[in-house]
Amino acid sequence: MPSRGARICGCGKLIPSGKICQCQEKAARERKARHDAKRPTARQRGYTREWETESRKFLKAHPICNRCGNHAEVVDHILAHKGDERLFWNRANWQPLCRHCHNSAKQAEERRKHQEVN
């Protein structure tokens, strides 16, 4: 299969296939910083010591990632709780995920759902 050639970034630089321009990296860092500045802290979102204890217990009982079958490291909320305490603590809404699945596939899925709503 032929590989893609280089492309020209909006800033005018020639960027090799599969690479990201420094200006795009900088823009992404700034966008994420703006988002993080508005976002409540983990503690404010409910991720307290009690959550840490309960999530460890859950992972001990469910050690395998629901998506890929690797070792689970994160308890994920299947439906985003968005501050709803009942949904947050509802164990039927919890699933074990490895860090990779949680931080990549699951986050991308949630972004798509958010874009469909807006």
What are the main properties of this structure?
about 10% strand; about 120 residues; 4 strands; two-stranded antiparallel sheet; mainly alpha
Describe the structure.
The protein is 46% helix and 10% strand. The mean pLDDT is 85. It has helices at 22-38, 49-61, 85-89, 99-117; strands at 7-8, 14-15, 74-77, 94-97. The two termini are 37 Å apart. A hairpin with a 5-residue loop joins β1 (7-8) and β2 (14-15). It is elongated and about 50 Å long. The strands form 2 sheets. A two-stranded antiparallel sheet has the order 1-2. The longest helix has 19 residues, at 99-117. It has 4 helices and 4 strands, in the order ββααβαβα. The protein is mainly alpha-helical.
Q: Widest sheet: strand order?
A: 1-2
Task: Round the mean pLDDT to the nearest integer and report it.
Answer: 85
Shape: elongated
Radius of gyration: 19 Å
First and last CA, distance: 37 Å
Instruction: Give me the oligomer status.
Output: single chain
Structural class: mainly alpha
Give the count of helical stretches.
4
Series of H and E elements:
EEHHEHEH
Show unreliable segments.
none
Our estimate of the beta-strand percent is 5-15%
DSSP, total strands: 4
Fraction in helix? 40-55%
Characterize this entry briefly.
The chain contains four helices and four strands. The chain is mainly α and 118 residues long.
Write the SSE topology.
Elements: E1 7-8, E2 14-15, H1 22-38, H2 49-61, E3 74-77, H3 85-89, E4 94-97, H4 99-117
Antiparallel strand pairs: 1-2, 3-4
